Amino acid sequence: MLRMPERPGQFRFSTAGIPTRDRRKAVCELRERGILPIEPLRDAAMSLAIAKRFLPGASILSGRLSGLRQEGVPRAIDADDDLFLGVNLSGYSVATQRGHEIGFGDGEAVLLSCASGAFAIIRPTPARFVGLRVPRKAIARFVPDLDDRMMRVIPAQTAPLQLLTTYLSSISDDTVSGSNELSRLFATHLHDLIALSLGAGPDCPAEMDSSIRATRLQAIKCYILDNLSEASLTVADVAARHHVTPRYVHKLFEPEGITCTHFILVQRLKRAYRSLRDLRLANRSITSIAYDAGFGDLSYFNRTFKRVYGTTPSQVRGTVDRQ
After folding, report:
1. In what order do the strands lie in the sheet with 68-72?
2. Which of these, 67, 117, 148, 273, is most buried using a 10 Å CB contact count?
3. Are strands 119-123 and 109-113 parallel, antiparallel or unpaired?
């Protein structure tokens, strides 16, 4: 169903709550209202669930499409030079531009121009995707031969592209609606990762290397938070998942004055503390909460919890029960 932005810089739409007979009309309405240039394919099962986010210097379109044709057109005269990087997280898509056609599959990406020639991406079958629209000048300073990179498949195994998709998953709604400074920082990181995915040369400035370290650190933190309940989670696991060495992971955390191991411990304690104070979990045992936070040893959990919070898990739970 159509949902207007809940916060500045956001838009969501899904056909899930719309009767099948009304979906085509609802999707066409997006186009007519200038919200999204998309149209149903004839004789194809159609479904759509998207989220659109806006950052200073980048817009992000992500979701699932099937039986639809997505177009890229200039938003304004001064936006004629925008670029669009389409990434297929899963599924298959066909991109067309200026009489040329190219297909790309799972994990692959294609760079397209939003100039006067426009483009289209056709998804006849279900595909999970993310698309980035950015100013050409933000990428051209690192990749001077951009025109030669258009309409070429970027392999799924491209390390910066993999990092880009992982980093995108860490951008929350709070990030988009947060401070302009934070939003611009994220957009800059996206520009750098796009340039590297396209094969930016070795003469890239030092700040790009700093940007890559920041994006890797953010991606690693998100991975840790998503896997805290795994008691066996180690620095070696984190490093292997992100195709780096454990030593490199430790170096990423060094500027923050902590180790990766300490970060994991702190996040587990925070999760346990929040759960202990959550009235909705009042029937859960402390042992269960500790295990769900990733602690495999209850006595170690109790000792560490008291050292950090100056009180025991039972006392925290008791305080909540008396409220």
Report:
1. 38-40, 68-72, 119-123, 93-97, 100-104
2. 67
3. unpaired
Distance CA 264, CA 301 (A): 13
Distance CA 232, CA 238 (A): 11
Q: How far apart are CA 105 and CA 94, in angstroms?
A: 9
Handedness of CA 110, 52, 194, 73 (dihedral sign): positive
Q: What one-character-per-residue DSSP string does 202-239 give?
A: TT--HHHHHHHHHHHHHHHHHHHHHTTT-TT--HHHHH
| Residue 229 and residue 292 in contact, taking contact as beta carbons nearer than 8 Å | yes
Contact between 82 and 54 (Cβ < 8 Å): no
Burial 26-44 (b: 16+ CB within 10 A, else e): bbeebeeeeebebbbeeee
Provide the residue type at 162 as one letter: Q
Q: Is 121 helix (H, G, I), strand (E, B) or coil?
A: strand
Q: Give strand pairing partners of 127.
A: 65
Q: What is the pTM of this model?
A: 0.73
Residue closest to 56 by CA, chosen among 134, 115, 173: 134
Q: Taking the domain 2-226, which CATH number applies?
A: 2.60.120.10
Question: What residues contact 308, with CB distance under 8 A and at least 6 apart?
Answer: 266, 269
Provide φ and ψ at 71, rounded to 5°. -115, 155
The answer to whether residues 110 and 95 touch, using CB atoms and an 8 Å cutoff, is yes
CB 134 within 8 A of CB 57: yes
Report CA 180 to chain centroid distance, whole Å: 18
Handedness of CA 153, 35, 176, 224 (dihedral sign): negative
Handedness of CA 311, 313, 319, 320 (dihedral sign): positive
